[in-house]
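User: Just a sanity check before I run the rest of the batch. Below are the structure tokens for the first item. I only need the designed sequence back.
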């Protein structure tokens, strides 16, 4: 048995081209999925409708990923949430049988393996990469609570929307107080 919570066993799927199985999965034991500003929190449910099809090269995984990402607005720091409803389709190649290959052929295969191809490990496919890609690539880089969020007042730190229109702060930076009035052209 695998220790990665995103590993899924394809044991029930016959290795004959054209065979298909559908699954409804919930992953609720995982690290945060997302970026620092907005992510699916640790152990929050990630629902996946998964369809596996046997093809000549391996297993074609098509999935719909649903979850809720939580973060904070970059302007006012209010909590925000985003519904995730994304899909992916990936081909997992069957493991290569390298027992009957020469060492030079094995090295050639290893170099090819380093490309972006996904490989099965026995009967298991690892869904973590495709799920992370589907989520992260569709999250906002700069999350906002609303498109017209004005953010916080730099003087007092209160939300601009809650402050009166004539809100202002008197005085300047006290570090420059000694230079006030030193703008004479004769100086």
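Assistant: Here's the designed sequence for the first item:
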């Amino acid at each position: 048995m695998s220790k990665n919570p995103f590993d899924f066993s394809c044991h029930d799927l016959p290795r004959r081209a054209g065979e298909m199985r559908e699954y409804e999965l919930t992953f609720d034991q995982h690290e945060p999925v997302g970026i620092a500003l907005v992510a699916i929190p640790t152990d929050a449910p990630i629902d996946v409708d998964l369809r596996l099809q046997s093809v000549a090269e391996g297993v074609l995984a098509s999935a719909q990923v649903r979850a809720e990402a939580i973060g904070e607005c970059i302007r006012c720091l209010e909590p925000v949430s985003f519904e995730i409803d994304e899909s992916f389709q990936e081909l997992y190649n069957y493991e290569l049988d390298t027992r009957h290959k020469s060492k030079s052929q094995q090295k050639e295969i290893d170099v090819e393996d380093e490309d972006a191809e996904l490989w099965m490990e026995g009967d298991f496919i690892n869904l973590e990469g495709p799920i992370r890609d589907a989520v992260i690539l569709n999250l906002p880089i700069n999350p906002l609570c609303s498109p017209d969020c004005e953010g916080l007042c730099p003087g007092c730190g209160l939300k601009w929307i809650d402050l009166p229109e004539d809100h202002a702060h008197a005085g300047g930076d006290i570090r420059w107080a000694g230079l006030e009035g030193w703008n004479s052209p004769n100086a």
